[in-house]
């Protein structure tokens, strides 16, 4: 049974401007540890790919927060929600801390997709009750 659906579109230019102003501080606010490592590797080698990676993660977390109906309030936090790539390349959600505990107690599972184009990143999330 569908518990919730969320979608988000993110202006990559806005993320780029925020990163230019705040740099690592913004990255530490939004990205979980695993994502932070990927962002750093991509940013060092291809700065534009780092920005796009950040935008897709930002968008995916917004879509997830809408699908679970919490918005950005506890137990939902930027860093407790991690967007991963499964071995197949398909994006997935890995939760941490209180958010993981809450999500499991609700009997929920999430499906996420992300995409990006020149100026925008977009995500769509469906959360099911098992």
UniProtKB/TrEMBL annotation:
Its EC number is 2.7.8.7. Pfam families: ACPS. InterPro entries: 4-PPantetheinyl_Trfase_dom, 4-PPantetheinyl_Trfase_dom_sf, ACPS, Ppantetheine-prot_Trfase_dom. This is Holo-[acyl-carrier-protein] synthase. The gene is acpS. One of its GO terms (biological process) is fatty acid biosynthetic process. It is found in: Cytoplasm. It comes from Comamonas piscis. It catalyses: apo-[ACP] + CoA = holo-[ACP] + adenosine 3',5'-bisphosphate + H(+). One of its GO terms (cellular component) is cytoplasm. Its cofactor is Mg(2+). One of its GO terms (molecular function) is magnesium ion binding. Transfers the 4'-phosphopantetheine moiety from coenzyme A to a Ser of acyl-carrier-protein. The keyword Cytoplasm applies.
